[in-house]
Amino acid sequence: YATFKSFIDNTYIRVSLPAVCFVWQIAMVVLFGVFIRYDEESDEKGWNEFKKSHNITSNIENDFYFRYPSFQDVHVMIFVGFGFLMTFLKRYSFGGVGFNFLIAAFGLQWALLMQGWFHALDPVTGKITIGIESLINADFCCAGSLIAYGALLGKVSPVQLMVVTLFGVTLFAVEEYIILDLFHCRDAGGAMVIHTFGGYYGLAISWVLYRPNLNLSKRLNGSVYHSDLFAMIGALFLWMFWPSFNSAITNHGAGQHRTVINTYLALASCVLTTFAISSMSQKKGKLDMVHIQNASLAAGVAMGTAAELMITPYGSIIVGFCCGIISTFGYLYVTPFLEKKLKLQDTCGIHNLHAVPGMLGGFVGAIVAATATEEIYGKEGLIETFDLTGKFENRTMSTQGGYQAAGTCVAIAFGLVGGVCVGFILRFPIWGDPADDFCFDDEAYWELPEDEETIPPVLEYNNHMVNKHHDTHESQFSLEES
Amino acid sequence: YATFKSFIDNTYIRVSLPAVCFVWQIAMVVLFGVFIRYDEESDEKGWNEFKKSHNITSNIENDFYFRYPSFQDVHVMIFVGFGFLMTFLKRYSFGGVGFNFLIAAFGLQWALLMQGWFHALDPVTGKITIGIESLINADFCCAGSLIAYGALLGKVSPVQLMVVTLFGVTLFAVEEYIILDLFHCRDAGGAMVIHTFGGYYGLAISWVLYRPNLNLSKRLNGSVYHSDLFAMIGALFLWMFWPSFNSAITNHGAGQHRTVINTYLALASCVLTTFAISSMSQKKGKLDMVHIQNASLAAGVAMGTAAELMITPYGSIIVGFCCGIISTFGYLYVTPFLEKKLKLQDTCGIHNLHAVPGMLGGFVGAIVAATATEEIYGKEGLIETFDLTGKFENRTMSTQGGYQAAGTCVAIAFGLVGGVCVGFILRFPIWGDPADDFCFDDEAYWELPEDEETIPPVLEYNNHMVNKHHDTHESQFSLEES
Amino acid sequence: YATFKSFIDNTYIRVSLPAVCFVWQIAMVVLFGVFIRYDEESDEKGWNEFKKSHNITSNIENDFYFRYPSFQDVHVMIFVGFGFLMTFLKRYSFGGVGFNFLIAAFGLQWALLMQGWFHALDPVTGKITIGIESLINADFCCAGSLIAYGALLGKVSPVQLMVVTLFGVTLFAVEEYIILDLFHCRDAGGAMVIHTFGGYYGLAISWVLYRPNLNLSKRLNGSVYHSDLFAMIGALFLWMFWPSFNSAITNHGAGQHRTVINTYLALASCVLTTFAISSMSQKKGKLDMVHIQNASLAAGVAMGTAAELMITPYGSIIVGFCCGIISTFGYLYVTPFLEKKLKLQDTCGIHNLHAVPGMLGGFVGAIVAATATEEIYGKEGLIETFDLTGKFENRTMSTQGGYQAAGTCVAIAFGLVGGVCVGFILRFPIWGDPADDFCFDDEAYWELPEDEETIPPVLEYNNHMVNKHHDTHESQFSLEES
């Protein structure tokens, strides 16, 4: 059956993919037309008025200059980081980086709308106003769906990925609203809202889409030398720019500054324990690129909540230390276990890079929040850091810690339940997903160039041409044909 | 004839390339010595005096902090973006990224001089003063010639490229002077001055250099799997950093802020329509990497003029929507048509990525400018945005729109006429360009490493060594020879 | 003997590598716990107090906003720049980028401690406080050891590299203390403290570790087409971000601004002379990727000291001009000479990229410092630029120049003596270094994926499957096995 399936050619997406792209993009045009406007710091008139009303004399006070360098780093992480991290398969690199490009480009537009409706809708004008912070948040929101893609890599069609993203962004906006607005949690780098949610969302979808005969494509489910190097580009850009990711929307001043330091230290520490466990796990102590590319990033995830808090430099290093160990063990033992026992196929191992470190990060954040004191932060600092104003003015730190922990659970729940529902939607036989023996194969959705080996050596080719020319006195036109 | 040509070996550049590099670089030393000085924000004494005279108390007001992050992004686009986008050919990746490196490094020095003479020459001292904005403009100016290189890729020698750049930068400075100074147009991201000019300049040169027997190198005029991935690195860095490109020299504050938002949205929208048209064009809906790498960038080009204006977020998305369609259609139908009917060989398809979207962007800018009102921008904002001071104080917005449209035409004219002239110069048989059967081949200008297939497997090799050792009782030294 | 060595398999690092990683990382946790705290600009309470005590009204005055964009660029240079530059070998790309990742992640933690003890230890509290500038300095400090790795690439084990880094960072902190604090030199981009030291440190180690039979691995000591392209990614990110490297810790305002301009110009100039000499050196004028990847960076090194001074734009171009020539000649003649006559094997040619240009940069800096006048810098500017305060208030410029020259000599001495000592430590037969015929081979320390050629073509495979299916009427399960 599996083999015949590929003859029916259900990877035909000539109608469905263009239809989805066009219809959804036209919807974006309409919805943006109705709802989206510049905010007061990007509007020409608005900014001039804002400066006057706030007695600002210098343009450098525009939020743009506080956020733009971080934004560009986050943007690189989304498109090159996630994209190239997923090029590690020997024959799915086009799909890895290409579909990542497609769904992120769609997701960020949809995210501006969804997050806008929940967080920035002006009740008077009925408009959403956007600025640089909105763009960062939109990129963040995409990340949830891109993480989910990691579990599905090579097994779904681009149309399915668009559906994953549509629902992923929608669910994200709702859980984010609950966690950040209703629970009033802090989660600058999204350990909860991005990584925990995205991780469990992807795992749940993959669990519903379980393919018992996936080993028909086993020959392609692995890397080659140069595809691992491409993946290393993605991994390093994620690793290097994670301090920007976690600090991109933290408080101006010491907040951003401290977040960068904490994330930087945790990531460095994580690299050493990753190398250690990777080496220990092999007979001769050889290292495994899968671990280096992935587990060394886990600390960035796990610092997603706590990095902006006063976790202290050595606290950060301890988090990194543990994450390298946990994540590498995950790749060694948990992913194979999940596949065998839970029938959960997780191509990139997002369980170990996002789901578990994200959950861990949520609880680390809860602990650090619960132990925050005025002595450490100063009175003013405590209020600023946790935004204890308005109706949250009297919240105690232990309450805050409790809400942070509850937020993590909400993220898990949204991921699992949402993922199962979306998984069932994706099982309709209309999405053009590949047959089991056609997984992990760019041939399914891409016009591929000829193989490298088919380049004839130049000199031989030329000599051949010349000899042929001399021997047979062929005309120039016949030469061109050969 | 074509075959014999390669025996005459006219790719000998051992004299011409070093001569051009040395002579022109020495000229740079002399001209920089005579003309170029630090401006008042980079000069030690000057900045201290500037701060006093302008009552500035903080160093953060130095233009450096407004522009430097964007500058570095633009720099990455010029060297990694353009460079790696041109590595897509299976055997011309060294030439793609390497010659791009050479001509950009030359071009930016020459640009500082040319743009300086036209825009920043102090009439009293006779000196050009440079700062961070000059560096951005120099990078921009190079971009024009790098775009032209895209049409010529694989068919010209590095010496010819130096000539293309010398004249390209010169022509750029003149048309820029006409468009920005005389016509007083706005063109922050250079839809007109960079992309329209660069696109038509390259196309005109390529048209003059038409090679009827180019299909002798047909076997090399295509990509392989990994060369397409390298090109994807270039494409993504261009795509991600295009908001920085368009905003790098816009007005401080809301100007830069808004330009980023507009470019970001247009690019995202463009990706979806590119994927849609690419999929629709193939029998089974398969995607083509050429489209993904190129057409998804067209929106950045088309927003080059309008991005800094109040085009509105949905206006930006509409521009992106159209560009993805137009550019992908260009790759599917127009480029083949141009080659067959107009005898115009355009290796990278700059017609669809730069020339047409640039022209489109010029006219979009004209329309948005013509419809600008005080209601939208505020009185102050309108004056600032269009710099309506001095002798342009009383210019109406419809006049401004007219000049913007006229500026686009000037850019086309300079590109076409300049390109034809330079093309004829390049036809002199002294430049070391490759024979028709030696195009698209790094062998012509690079010492290439041995082929990958020649790596002997380690264990076999070792066993072989050991056996040999055991069998023949050779000494260790003879082993070393083998 | 050499051949047999590989049978003894001394690349077993399953105990030593994890042990070193764990023990040293635990030491980091403890030492960070005892010593490292946030500084007043990253501490929540501290920053609020700092703002009050300094009458600062805006968070934009936090040093974070002056330094962060440069920091991220430096971070990219350390991990992607150095890492990918070392992927050029055909079968040591994993080791190039992977071990670079490991030792940089360790080195930066150790550097924060070592540099902290020497420069930022609070005598009252006994604590080191860190901020964004500390992170930049830690990255800089790593660079010294990463440069040394360049000379050792392919010939040492990761455990040895950890030792190289441990001592490298320690020596760095001491020489830096002598040069910057005792001698009171200026060396923003580290021509002396980073490049001269790192270069000679690596060369001295490599000299002690000389392998007479290294040509047993000769077949792997070279590049392939795509490995050269990966290396080009590293080279370009180094080249593009070198202005950030040199300016990252210079004075706010005109200082950072000028440093960027000078470095940018010198690098551009260097590219042209590199291409010229590379082309001149080959019979047919063909270019060599080794030169392009390396020599074009030499100007960044050589501007390490002088870039922040008023060297003038044309002075910068002259430095770049000379560096391209000197460095390329180094690759052509000096490296082979060193190997044959001095028995010094320098895999990446750091002699020509770091040691010599760094030394040159130290002396250029000395000359530019010695010729500084109040007329050029202004009285205030001269004091600020050379920090002539406290006990250095009355230092003359010629004295400063003398100290700068002396500093260069200190860097050389530390590199050579330190390197020889570390080299002898590395000769203990306990570190798991590879046998002579196992050098330049990732097989020694990495689980490698199967070769690319082993991917069966999909269609053949499928047809094969189908035929098999039709012919033998096998069940679906038997299909799965095949």
Structure keywords:
homotrimer; 482 residues; mainly alpha; Ammonium transporter fold; two-stranded parallel ribbon; 19 helices; disordered N terminus; disordered C terminus; membrane (chains A, B, C); RhesusRHD (chains A, B, C); NH4_transpt_AmtB-like_dom (chains A, B, C); transmembrane helix (chains A, B, C); ammonia transport (chains A, B, C)
Structure, described:
Three copies of one chain form a homotrimer. With 482 residues, chain A is mainly α. The first copy, chain A, has a single domain (1-444), classed as Ammonium transporter AmtB like domains (Ammonium transporter fold). In chain A, 68% of the residues lie in helices and 1% in strands. Chain A is built from 19 helices and two strands. Chain A has helices at residues 2-8, 16-35, 44-53, 63-85, 93-120, 132-152, 158-182, 191-208, 225-247, 254-280, 289-294, 298-302, 313-341, 350-370, 374-377, 379-386, 397-426, 458-472, 476-481; strands spanning 36-38, 128-130. Chain A has a two-stranded parallel sheet with strand order 1-2. The longest helix of chain A has 30 residues, at 397-426. Chain A starts with a helix and ends with a helix. The model of chain A is unreliable at 1-7 and 458-482 (pLDDT under 50). Chains A and B meet through helix 2, strand 1, helix 3, helix 4 and helix 5 of A and helix 1, helix 4, helix 9, helix 10 and helix 13 of B.
